[in-house]
Every structure is written in C-alpha cells, then in structure tokens.
Design goal:
Blueprint lengths: L12 H14 L12 H8 L3 H13 L3 E4 L3 E4 L4 E5 L5 H7 L4 E12 L2 H7 L6 E11 L2 E11 L6 H7 L3 H7 L5 E12 L2 H7 L6 E11 L4 E10 L3 E5 L2
Parallel strand pairs: 3-10
Antiparallel strand pairs: 1-2, 4-5, 5-6, 6-9, 7-8, 8-9
Helix pairs in contact: 1-3, 2-3, 6-7
Length: 242
C-alpha cells in the first residue's frame, strides 16, 4: 500500500547556514565591521561545499546584515533588528534608537463592518464601520514586518486621510486629536510565512514569523487600535520593556 502521508518539509542547507550566521551576529559573536570566517572555513564548519556557503552569504547580503569586498571577504554590516515591545510601541522611535532608518508603506486602506470579535474588543456596536490598514514596515529599506491595524472610525473621524498623509500611526493619530496611546495587551506566537507574506518580506515560503496581536487605548481608556504584526523571525529580535 502506498504511503500518502505528507512528508515533512526539509530546510535547505544554505538557509540553515544563513540562520546560524544570523544568530552568531545577533548574539554578538561577530560585531559590526568584523570579518567573517572565510568561505573555506565556513564550508568546513558546516560540512558543505563553498557554493552552499556562498548562497547563504548572498542571503545575508540581501538582508544588509553582511557586505562583501572582492579579495577581502565578508564583513558584518549590521545586527538583526532589536524591536522593543512595551506600553508605548513606536516603530520609528524603536528603529532610530538602534541606528536604523524606518519607513512604513501602506498597502491598502479598507472600510468595512466590524466582525463580532472586533466590535467586542474595540468596544463598539456590532456592524459599526472600522478602518483596516494593511502595510509593510521597513528598516533601511529592507522589509522587516507586515502589519494589519483596525480602527473604530466613529471614534477616530479623519483618520483615513491622516494615515494617507502622515509618516506613521503616531503622527496620524496625533493630527486628529489622539495625543497619546498605550498598549494594554500583547500576545506573541510563532507561525510560518504563507506565499504572499513571503513575497512581501522577501523570504522563503514557510520561513518562521513572529506574530504579535495587541490592543491600544487612548488617554481616556478607549480602544483606538486592534493590531496584528508579522515579523520576519530571523531578522528581528523582540525585546520587552520592564
């Protein structure tokens, strides 16, 4: 009888090597500007040929973690992004604090009726319109996360136009009168990238993602944002404020 059970997907060897080197850089074994071991040394370490090592290094170059110089070797260009999670999560501030240049790209803005769960979480009536924003977060022009944010429109008039014009959510909310907002909860779990997520984040389908789900309140304790973010798992380290 033919075995029809699904076979587990094997991680390509070059991708595993890239992950190991990324971890070495993240944990400080190699600092920015340090030279990495030669291709021959890395091939010996991982028990592969130099072509496989070269493929792994090319991925790190694409992520702007490593740069190469002809005849000199490969050097560490940056560490994976540390991203602080706390009551006040501000993407632009987080990235600039670690010397990275932040940017956000809105993919879609959509008005629709809130689902029952969304209405309950945002403390609005069922069927009330919400604004759903899908976008891409970048560090030094490299995609690091996809996000989905849901806003109660009746509570935040003018937000759609503000999001189209402002450089970030904080600036958009401030422009319509929300001076401050804080996270009341954050949940994190690991998932695998689907085809469209992989396309946006410039990673392979099935790569690990860290998904956060959060709720933010304004200064009066009213919910203003229900959000989900998918971080490229190998490129971002989530840290927690005390």
């Amino acid at each position: 009888m033919r075995d029809t059970a699904a076979k587990p997907r094997r991680t390509p060897v070059w991708q595993s090597i890239a992950s190991e080197l990324r971890r070495d850089i993240s944990e400080g074994r190699y600092s920015v500007a340090d030279k990495l071991p030669t291709e021959a040394a890395l091939a010996d370490r991982f028990g592969v040929n130099r072509h496989t090592v070269r493929h792994a290094l090319s991925q790190l170059v694409k992520e702007k973690l490593v740069h190469t110089r002809r005849g000199a070797g490969a050097f560490v260009a940056a560490r994976p992004t540390d991203y602080a999670i706390g009551k006040r999560v501000r993407f632009h501030e987080n990235l600039r604090a670690i010397g990275r240049e932040p940017a956000k790209k809105i993919l879609t803005l959509e008005r629709r009726a809130a689902t029952k769960v969304e209405a309950t979480t945002l403390a609005i009536s069922g069927g009330t319109q919400v604004l759903v924003c899908h976008g891409l977060s970048l560090a030094d022009n490299v995609p690091v996360a996809l996000f989905e944010a849901i806003y109660p429109l009746e509570r935040l008039p003018g937000l759609e136009e503000a999001l189209r014009e402002a450089t970030g959510v904080t600036a958009a909310l401030k422009s319509i009168g929300v001076e401050d907002y804080t996270r009341t909860s954050t949940r994190i779990n690991a998932v695998l990238a689907n085809a469209t997520q992989a396309l946006h984040l410039q990673i392979r389908e099935g790569s690990p993602l860290l998904r956060t789900s959060s709720l933010s309140l304004d200064g009066n304790g009213e919910p203003v944002e229900l959000g989900r973010t998918w971080f490229a798992g190998d490129g971002v380290t989530l840290t927690f404020d005390g």
